[in-house]
Amino acid sequence: MFQDQVINQPSIETGRFVLRPPRRGDIGLLTLYAGDRRVAEGTRSIPHPLPPGTVEAFVERAMAPERTEDVWIIDGGEKGNEVLGALSLTRLGRDQAQLGYWVAPAFWNTGIASEAVRALVEANPLKSAELFAEVFQDNPASARVLTNTGFAYIGDAEAFSVARGASVPTWTYIRKMG
Question: What class is the 12-128 domain?
Fold first, then answer.
């Protein structure tokens, strides 16, 4: 029997939406949005085209008690079922975590990413001393989200993007928590 509730992961309310753990009912909208080339190419790990079962496996991993990455769905629905995007914190050790996020293209340039990142940072659910984040250098809007939410630029690097099939230059950021 499968459970549909993530253990030890809080929901976080903002003015316009709730950040909540993923559930199986999110698979349809997550598949729709993650299958968009623009979303996939903005991440390290989402492939394009999106193979069958990818999102189902992602949701199962995100719901697992032994996970190393906590995922929050940006839920803008009054009944708790409108996926706007997703955020994650991956535990790195030494009280550090890596932040990742994406927002569905229909909601770009609405301030949702900044509001969601700000809410997650303020809640600091993993009690991290430092948060790291990186964005591809061809995505300055995501860099603005980070700087607008208190992250400081610390250098250039590169990361492999599965959707692009290539290493892509990145900007790396840090946020000291405390």
Answer: alpha beta
